[in-house]
C-alpha cells in the first residue's frame, strides 16, 4: 500500500523568513540541515553498527533525502550532551553507547557469526526484540541491563534526534520552534492559522458515505 502524506505540500522551511522563527532558530535549523555524515566520536565498526541500528529503529521512506539519524546521535555523544538525568543502571552517555554497541556486536557474532550491520533485517529485528525483552546476557554488557540500554539510550536518543530534524517536522506537520511568535491555540483539535492542515481523506470518505445514507 502506498504511504499517504498527511500534510501534502507542507514545507516547514517556508517559515524561515516569517515571524515564526527568529535568527537563533534559523541557525539551529541550518546546522541540522548541513550536518556532515562522517562520525566524530564512534570508530568505523561502531559507526556501521550504529547506522544499521538507526535504520532498524527509524526506517525512512523513499522519495526524499534521508534524515542523518546516526550522525545526529554521534554528534550528541561526541559533544557529551547529557540529558541532565539518567537511569542509575546505565553508565554515562558515552560509556553506555560504546558498551551497548560492543555488546550488540558480540551478540550478533555469537548467534550468526556476522556483525550486526551484516545481518538480514529479520535477524536484526529479532536481536532488538530480545534486547528490549532483557534476554541478551553476553558478558560484554558489563552489568548494564540490555533492556535499559534499549529504552534509556537507543529509543531515547534515536527517536529524539529523528524528530529534531526539519524533514521529520514536515511528516508530522510540526512548525518547529515558534519563537518569537509562539503557539496560541493549544487545546485538543485546535491549531493556529500558520500551522499545517492535516489531510484526512479517510475521514472525508466516511463523511461522504454518512451523508449519502441520511439524505
Please characterize this protein's 3D structure:
There is one protein chain. The protein has 215 residues and is mostly helical. It has helices spanning 23-33, 44-57, 69-78, 93-112, 121-132, 146-162, 166-172, 201-214. Helix 2 crosses helix 3, helix 4 crosses helix 6 (146-162) and helix 5 packs across helix 6 (146-162). The model is unreliable at 203-215 (pLDDT under 50).
Annotation keywords:
8 helices; 0% strand; mainly alpha; disordered C terminus; 215 residues; single chain; 49% helix
Task: Lay out the secondary structure.
Blueprint (H helix, E strand, L loop, with lengths): L22 H11 L10 H14 L11 H10 L14 H20 L8 H12 L13 H17 L3 H7 L28 H14 L1
Spatial shape: elongated
The description of the largest β-sheet is: none
The radius of gyration over CA amounts to 21 Å
> In DSSP terms, counting alpha (H) and pi (I) runs of 4 or more, how many helices?
8
**What's the rounded overall pLDDT mean?**
90
The string of secondary-structure elements, in order, is HHHHHHHH
Number of strands: 0
Amount of beta strand: under 5%
Structural class of the helices, strands and pairings? mainly alpha
What is the terminal-to-terminal distance? 33 Å
Assembly form of the protein: single chain
Contiguous low-pLDDT stretches (5 residues minimum) are 203-215
| Helicity range | 40-55%
Amino acid at each position: 500500500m502506498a504511504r499517504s502524506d498527511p500534510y501534502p505540500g507542507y514545507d516547514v522551511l517556508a517559515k524561515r523568513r516569517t515571524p515564526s522563527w527568529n535568527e537563533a532558530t534559523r541557525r539551529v535549523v541550518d546546522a541540522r540541515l548541513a550536518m556532515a555524515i562522517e562520525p566524530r566520536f564512534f570508530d568505523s565498526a561502531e559507526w556501521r553498527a550504529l547506522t544499521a541500528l538507526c535504520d532498524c529503529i527509524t526506517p525512512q521512506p523513499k522519495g526524499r533525502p534521508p534524515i542523518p539519524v546516526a550522525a545526529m546521535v554521534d554528534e550528541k555523544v561526541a559533544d557529551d550532551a547529557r540529558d541532565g538525568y539518567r537511569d542509575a543502571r546505565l553508565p554515562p552517555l558515552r560509556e553506555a553507547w560504546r558498551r551497548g554497541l560492543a555488546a550488540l556486536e558480540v551478540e550478533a557474532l555469537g548467534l550468526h557469526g556476522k556483525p550486526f550491520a551484516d545481518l538480514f533485517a529479520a535477524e536484526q529485528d529479532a536481536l532488538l526484540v530480545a534486547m528490549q525483552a532483557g534476554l541478551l546476557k553476553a558478558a560484554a554488557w558489563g552489568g548494564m541491563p540490555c533492556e535499559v540500554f534499549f529504552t534509556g539510550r537507543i529509543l531515547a536518543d534515536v527517536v529524539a534526534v529523528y524528530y529534531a530534524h526539519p524533514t521529520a517536522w514536515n511528516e508530522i506537520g510540526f512548525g518547529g520552534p515558534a519563537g518569537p511568535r509562539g503557539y496560541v491555540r493549544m487545546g485538543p483539535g485546535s491549531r493556529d492559522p500558520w500551522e499545517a492542515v492535516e489531510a484526512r481523506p479517510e475521514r472525508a470518505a466516511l463523511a461522504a458515505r454518512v451523508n449519502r445514507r441520511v439524505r
